[in-house]
Amino acid sequence: MRDRLRVVVADDERPARSLLLSMLRNFDDVQIVGEAADGAAAVELIEREKPDLALLDLQMPEVDGIGVVRLLKRGSMPMIAFITAYDEYAVRAFEMNAVDYLLKPVDATRLRETVSRAIDRLDRDEFVRLSRGTLANISAIAKAVPMPGGTFVLSLSNGQELQSSRFHSRLLRERLLRL
User: Fold this and answer.
1) Percent of residues, the chain, with pLDDT higher than 90
2) Same domain, 95 and 172
3) Tens digits of per-residue pLDDT, 15-36?
4) How do 79-84 and 53-57 pair as beta strands?
5) Which is it for strands 100-103 and 79-84: parallel, antiparallel or unpaired?
6) Is the domain of 60 the same as that of 139?
């Protein structure tokens, strides 16, 4: 069984934060690793705990949810879901590559969708797209051979060979160099 999704919650309103935490405790695939009452504490918590997902209130005093994302160091950036009472910030939130955008009051079904979406994104980290119709499990790649024209031929541990498209080769190169 896969590890549970490690989550932090940051909201300056204690009742809203408590409600989110109580709903999350009912999800057996979630582990709550911390809570913060303001943006500065959220940054510190995220950098210390390195959660998979941060649920951030968009409107907190001093450092708001978007400010938290801007202050995080590159290596400690979790997936982000913004929570707010106002829908006018949705476009800005998705521009920051948010997993989701939840409107208050958050209900358990909608929160479940967000958690599932985050889990799906984590699982995708195990695979890399080679072309429009081809995915490969990263752990099964035995060798990647660069070809003329900027593509790759990948040899898998089962002996199968797959070729990447030129477009996906650029993404693959970035991904393999990171691993």
Assistant:
1) 51
2) no
3) 999 999 999 999 999 999 999 9
4) parallel
5) parallel
6) no
Both 108 and 137 in one domain: the answer is no
**Please, which residues bridge with residue 146 across strands?**
152
Q: Containing H/E element for 161?
A: strand 161-163
Could you give the C-alpha distances from 58 to 13, 74, 82, 88, in angstroms and in order? 12, 20, 6, 11
C-alpha dihedral (21, 23, 28, 29), degrees to nearest 10: -70
> Do 142 and 118 have their domain in common?
no
Place of tokens 């998979």: 52
Residue 89: pLDDT band (50, 70, 90) is confident
Residue 44 pLDDT greater than 90, yes or no: yes
In the block, which residue shows the tokens 């948010």? Answer: 98
Boundaries of domain holding 156: 127-178
- The predicted model gives 84-98 an average pLDDT of 79
Strand order across the beta sheet in which 152-156 lies: 141-146, 152-156, 161-163
Angle at 30 between CA 114 and CA 122, to 5 degrees: 60
